Amino acid sequence: MTVSRRQFLMISGLTVGGVVVYGSLPAALWLYQNNKLDDEQTDPAAYQAGKYQWAMIVDIEKCIGCRRCLSACEQENHVPHEPELYRTWLERYEIAADGSLQAELITKTDLGFEPDNDSLNGFFVPKLCQQCANPPCVSVCPLNATFRTDDGVILMDQERCIGCKYCVVACPYGARFLNPETLVVDKCTFCYHRITQGLPPACVQACPRGARSFGNLLEPEDPVRQRLLDESLQVIRPSLGTKPRVYYTGLREGVR
User: Fold this and answer.
1) Does pTM surpass 0.85?
2) How far is CA 236 from CA 28, 149, 200, 254, 256, in A?
3) For residue range 67-109, what is the model confidence (pLDDT) as tens digits?
4) Does 16 share its domain with 30?
5) Among 5-14, 76-85, 159-168, 216-225, which is the least confidently predicted range?
6) pLDDT score of 114
7) Which domain holds residue 85?
8) Between β-strands 246-249 and 54-59, what pairing exists: parallel, antiparallel or unpaired?
9) Which residue in 129, 153, 190 sits closest to 52, CA to CA?
10) Which of 10, 50, 63, 214 is 20 to 30 A from 72, alpha carbon to alpha carbon?
11) What are the strands, taking DSSP E only, across 25-178?
12) Around Cβ 10, how many Cβ atoms within 10 Å?
């Protein structure tokens, strides 16, 4: 498929009298800018973002800390292979005898602390961008380089980002980082280039235990929507009012 940038701007309704009007990018233009329109399966007019509201459910009880999600994300999204750079990550928690939680980051190369003999049990918490409906990262960006799509995904326009890191500081979930190779901010996109073609995010597909579920909240029969209606799911730090679209089961108080 050969489509020029100007053609995409015209398809997207971003040109007025030959002048580009720059606001939030539509799905097709974002995919074009991020080199995701290389095969014939992708049609810039085929995906209708307004028909979707994407969300993820993470079942903490099912996560075994195998880190396959980390590897799949790194390979799929070309995340630099450095321990502290990630779009999705794992945290390992141990419950002490007094009920307190001890937490440590599990990196791509390190499984974290050794089990404490005084601890009762432990669990893993997969984390990623929470794809907030009320995202603080969007409001602080001076160039509108980070934005929320019609289908509820927070994306980065890497052509506009100047690496000021305002959004990195504003994110209360620590889900953003400055990519040392591109010098712009990077983050989880729910594998937007995959979900717009009917494929699940790489982390969801890679999990051997099915700890991550992904679906469309606007589809009445979608299992994720049904679980949201039928189960008592939790979000991380609900008091912030960010309205995350990543929900958890088995989320203990104290996980931040």
Assistant:
1) no
2) 31, 22, 22, 9, 6
3) 999 999 999 999 999 988 999 999 999 888 887 888 888 877 6
4) yes
5) 5-14
6) 52
7) 50-256
8) parallel
9) 153
10) 50
11) 54-59, 88-96, 101-106, 119-128, 146-148, 154-156, 176-178
12) 11
- Return the DSSP state at 250: S
Handedness of CA 225, 189, 194, 13 (dihedral sign): positive
Same domain, 24 and 137: no
List the structure tokens of 230: 């039928």
Ordered DSSP codes for 170-205? H-TT--EEE-TTTSSEEE--SSHHHHTTT---HHHH
- Among residues 242, 237, 241, the alpha carbon closest in space to that of 125 is found at 237
248: tokens are 């958890």
Domain identity same for 159 and 198: yes
Residues 107 and 227 in one domain: yes
Are residues 21 and 142 in contact, defined by beta-carbon separation less than 8 angstroms? no
